[in-house]
Specification:
Layout lengths: L6 E2 L6 E2 L24 H10 L6 E6 L2 H16 L11 H7 L6 E5 L7 H11 L9 E6 L6 H12 L5 E7 L7 H5 L2 E5 L11 H20 L4 H5 L6 H20 L8 H5 L3 H19 L4 H21 L1
Parallel strand pairs: 3-6, 3-7, 4-5, 5-6
Antiparallel strand pairs: 1-2
Helix pairs in contact: 1-2, 2-3, 4-5, 7-12, 9-11, 9-12, 11-12
This protein binds zinc ion.
The site of zinc ion has 9 residues, from helix 3.
C-alpha cells in the first residue's frame, strides 16, 4: 500500500514529509495524473460543475479506498490548477497535488491508524490562515471512519466555523460509518461500487434486496405492491432501508456506466434515461440523508416510491 503523505504546517511553513516513491495515482496514466477511469467519469463531471461554487465539506463514499483518494486529489487539483481547462495534469499545482506535497493540500489517512484529536487540532490551526496559493485549501480525511469520537467532534467544530478558502473532503466506504452530524454538513457523493461486490452479501440478503428492488420497480410501473411491504410490522429496520437505498444507488451507478443489470429490477434502472438516472441518484441521496438523520425509514421509502412514481410520469409526459 502506498505510504500516505501528510502535509501540515506546525510553525507556519509547510513541512513536507517526503514520499518514499511515487504518488498514489494510477500508474497507467503517463500523460496526466488525472486520467479519469470511465467508471468515475460521471463523478468527475459533477465535481467540475461544483468547482464554480465548491461546497465547504464533501463526503465521497463508495468505490474503494484508492478510488476515493484519487477523486479527492482530483478535486484538490480541480480547485487549484490555474490552467484554462483544469486540472491540466502538467502544472506545478497538479504535480504537487498528485504527489501530495502541495502547500494547500492536507491529507490524513485513517489507513495508517486512527485519526486523533491532535491531528484535527493541527487542521483547525491551519484552517485559520488563508490558503497559500490562489486556489482553495483542501483538507482530506481519508477513511474518516477511523476518526476517534473526540477527533470527529473536533472536526465538526471546524466544519461549523467555515473559513473561506477551506474545503473539507471526508472519504469513507459508507456514510453510515460516520457521525450523522458530519454527514449532514457534507455534500455527499457516491462513487460507483466495484461491480463484483455483490458476492460480499449473503445469498439470503441479496435475495431480499432483489425482492425489494423488484417491488419498487413494480410500484413505479403500476402504483401497487409497495406500501404492503413497508407497512409490515409498522416500520422497516433502518439498516434494511439503508441497504435498499444502497442497492438502488448501485443499480443507478451500473445503469449510468452501462453495466449489465444483475438484479430482477435491473431492467427498470437500465431503461431510464441518463437525466432520469441522475435525478433518481439525487433523490436516493436525499433519502439516504433522511434515513441517516433518523427519519422513520418506512416513511422515507414510501416518500421515495411516491416521488419516483410521480416524476416518471412527469418525464414521460413532457
Ligand atoms: Zn494543472
Amino acid at each position: 500500500m502506498d505510504r500516505e503523505q501528510l502535509v501540515v504546517s506546525p510553525g507556519g511553513q509547510a513541512s513536507l514529509t517526503t514520499l518514499d516513491s511515487e504518488p498514489a495515482i494510477r500508474k497507467s496514466s503517463p500523460p496526466s495524473p488525472w486520467a479519469i477511469p470511465p467508471r468515475l467519469s460521471v463523478l468527475a463531471g459533477r465535481l467540475d460543475r461544483l468547482a464554480f461554487s465548491p461546497p465547504q465539506a464533501m463526503l465521497f463514499e463508495g468505490g474503494d479506498a484508492d478510488d476515493r483518494i484519487f477523486m479527492a486529489l482530483y478535486w484538490a487539483a480541480r480547485l487549484n490548477c490555474q490552467a484554462e481547462v483544469p486540472p491540466c495534469g502538467l502544472c506545478a499545482s497538479c504535480i504537487q497535488i498528485a504527489q501530495k506535497v502541495h502547500l494547500d493540500l492536507i491529507v490524513f489517512d485513517g489507513r495508517e491508524g486512527a485519526i486523533k484529536v491532535d491531528h484535527v487540532r493541527d487542521i483547525r490551526i491551519k484552517a485559520l490562515e488563508p490558503p497559500r496559493g490562489p486556489g482553495a485549501r483542501v483538507i482530506v480525511l481519508a477513511e474518516a471512519q477511523e476518526l476517534t469520537i473526540e477527533a470527529a467532534n473536533a472536526l465538526l467544530k471546524s466544519m461549523e466555523e467555515p473559513r473561506p478558502g477551506n474545503c473539507f473532503v471526508l472519504l469513507a466506504p459508507l456514510r453510515e460509518r460516520l457521525l450523522p452530524t458530519l454527514v449532514s454538513r457534507s455534500w455527499v457523493m457516491s462513487l460507483p461500487w466495484a461491480l463484483n461486490l455483490d458476492g460480499a452479501a449473503s445469498p439470503a440478503a441479496s435475495e431480499e434486496m432483489d425482492q425489494w428492488l423488484a417491488a419498487f420497480a413494480g410500484f413505479v410501473r403500476s402504483g401497487t405492491g409497495w406500501f404492503e411491504r413497508t407497512a409490515i410490522k409498522g416500520r422497516v429496520p433502518r439498516q434494511t432501508a439503508a441497504g435498499i437505498l444502497l442497492a438502488m444507488e448501485r443499480e443507478v451507478a451500473r445503469a449510468l456506466i452501462g453495466g449489465h443489470p444483475p438484479s430482477g429490477a435491473g431492467d427498470f434502472f437500465a431503461c431510464l434515461e441518463a437525466r432520469e438516472l441522475r435525478r433518481l441518484d439525487e433523490i436516493l441521496r436525499e433519502s439516504q440523508e433522511a434515513v441517516t438523520a433518523m427519519v422513520n425509514p418506512s416513511l422515507v421509502l414510501d416518500r421515495l416510491a411516491v416521488r419516483v412514481y410521480n416524476w416518471t410520469r412527469d418525464f414521460s409526459s413532457d
